[in-house]
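Worked example

This section walks through a single chain of length 350. The input is the sequence exactly as stored; nothing has been trimmed or padded.
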Amino acid sequence: MRLAARVGLELGSLKLDVEIEAEPGEVLAILGPNGSGKTTLLRCLSGLQPIDRGRITLGDRVFDDPETGAFVPAEERPVSVVFQDYLLFGHLSALENVAFGMRARGVARGTARVRAREWLERMGLREYASTRPRELSGGQQQRVALARALATDPHLLLLDEPLAALDASTRASVRRDLRDHLAGFDGVRVLITHDPLDAYALADRVAVLEAGQFTQTGTLADVAAHPRSRYVAQLVGTNLLRGTVTGTAFAGAGGGSLTVEAESDGPTYVAIPPQSIALYNNPPAGSPRNVWRTTVVDIDAHFDRVRVTLADPLPLTAELTTAGLAALDTRPGDSVWASVKATEITTYPA
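Given that input, the structure is written out below as tokens.
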């Protein structure tokens, strides 16, 4: 059953206006910063939030269409949700938590318990059937929540930041487990996340949501290769400028200029890897084509690498080694010279 949704909604300051299409067996990741509308979109798809305009269908069934007045409440949709904090019932055992979704849909108690036990076995949790959530690890709780969601045989599975509640030491292993479990589900899967690693490991395709609208869609590799917003550029660890190219001369929309290698004409994005930007205390020797004087705005050290944020009119981030920063002996507010080779600059139409 194919998911097709046009979602229009105004909720407080959020104006959500997106279109989604996802096929059975596909994992679509909705990637975006906090406040972009990701969870609100999930609530619309699940039936927890009616839309103002548009249409949501799964296969030939209409879930929400304000124009015709059609609306299927959440409990009647063949949709399951795994919430960020899992929402397990603390007073119920793992077995009863998994059985709850089936019981809520009218499955007899005995049948629900048998199927719940089968799902716990599939999740590798057979010995924890009588254990309550507070006695389970974060990864085990996630598997119980996933079992509860899948036990109802949904046609659409929604996952809201399913790894966000886990600590870094367990996230990688649980991510692998989740990928394996999702591979056995042949319905439509929509993953909400702000972590590109989750999208890379779990999703076939991503849609980047910013301020209520999709700014990019495609595979994560495609999105990373050609970021079209500052958020996506930061997400994949590169610099992004927008401006106009005439021949090989780039003029930034906020000022500043660069010489690029590939000739073009018109509105253009420029992507520059942070590690390709060199910093100096004095004008560099030789005749590099892109040299400018700027001011250090911020310095952020991370392990053996340091990211140095530079001021307008070319608001870029350079990446140095800790030894390189020590040799430069610079601090926020200091003036430096920056350079980048034209061959290190990637351009593509805006």
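What to look for: Residues 295 and 311 are 5 Å apart (CA to CA).
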